[in-house]
Amino acid sequence: MTAIWWIRRDLRLIDNPALHAALAGGGRVVPLFVLDPALLGSDWVAPQRVAFLVAGLRLLAADLQKRGSGLLVRLGKPELVVPQVVSEVRATAVYAQADISPYARQRDKRVAEAVQLNLVPGLTVHPPDWVLKADSTPYTVFTPFSKAWKSHALPNANDLLPVPDRIATPDLPPSDAMPETEALKAPFPPGETEAQHRLAVFVEGSDAPIFRYGVDRNQLDLDGTSQLSPYLRLGMISARQAVVAALQARDRATTAAAQKGVETWLNELIWREFYAAILYHFPHVRRGNFRPQYDTIPWRNDGTEFAAWCAGKTGYPVVDAAMRQLLATGWMHNRARMIVASFLVKDLLIDWRWGEKWFMQHLVDGDPAANNGGWQWTAGTGTDAAPYFRIFNPMTQGAKFDPDGAYIRRWLPELANVPDKYIHEPYKMPLPAQKKAGCIIGKDYPAPIVDHGQARQRTMDAYKVSS
DNA sequence: TTTTGAGTTGTTCGA
DNA sequence: GTCGAACAACTCAAA
Question: pLDDT value at position A465?
Fold first, then answer.
């Protein structure tokens, strides 16, 4: 008996339910990855994300070879490729980790019409239809969702599935060539080994970063976050293992602050599950506002201003530094994501979907559910959204979370010599100071493309009209 | 069915 | 300089 392990967002051997199901169901297993032209050619694709995926597949193939197996890679529509491979290797069933995006679910439905497709949970700790209200409808507010989520049986270390010693695999038919990719720019070496290392660094020891996460995660000039998002995105580490690590760290926390740090990180993992469930139950959020009453917001959608935002040339240093970090590395600090999102939506009055798409086109960790949830939160159109008057002030946010301007200077070299006093508002520099810093406003660095105070009022008025 | 309490991440203004 | 209120209702979840 031969089964196919169809790999999608589970590029790992540790704690992989789909792999274990395939082993149990077949005896012999053919690991298969399908390069889907609909995804590779979509206008939501990010070259850095593809590069991270392809490099990750090479590492996974090497890990599989060490266990007597290998990886079959094929290019083509899954509804054609999967049945083709089933017949080539004479498999009796296909096992895969269930996915939640509308595209993935339609794709799997088409594949299941042709072959016996067994979908196994694993993308999230609790499957999206487990955490429901008493009346069996989904939650749309985070806090009650998280309470219900925590009240379900939580995993412990014994629940994590071990790596199979050996994976019996028949001789594999030839693979297609991997696509050419650009070099990885982000400081995220792909692969399961790296993901395991990062989790360990984040949670192990009495002085682990997770215990300071509550405070440090907001600091733009610090690596206070887990830096695990690209690995969770492609399942190079399981969400279940991350949650187990958080629960263990919580038991080891010795101070209230440390406990809070752990709880904050656990909540971030639950936010990931929440937005996965939202996209699963309300697929229309991928097209537009969760709340249709916001469909009438009079977006300005100025193309020139959008281009300035994309390029990191708005004249607001913290916004521009973050957008340059995204262009340079394919990643952006979480606090920075909120700041630039607030600026796009509430200072420029540009439709959040423009920003959502730009993020998906550049983020190495871009996830359709979390990205959509985050943007709708900022825009105030989402499930548990920020009130419309919650508008980030780029100067205040910069002063608070990048007090010395280290983050700004790192990504905006033209501001390197601007004195601390003006680093968050360089346009206030008198001309002599501009000359001394080698930074003439309007020439070396742009003047602000909008006045924040006026823009803020404009948005308050626009949202009032449409609510 | 009705009622009640609560709701990620902020900013500004005026006392 | 500090601090509390206002920003505005509305929807959700649960009793």
Answer: 67
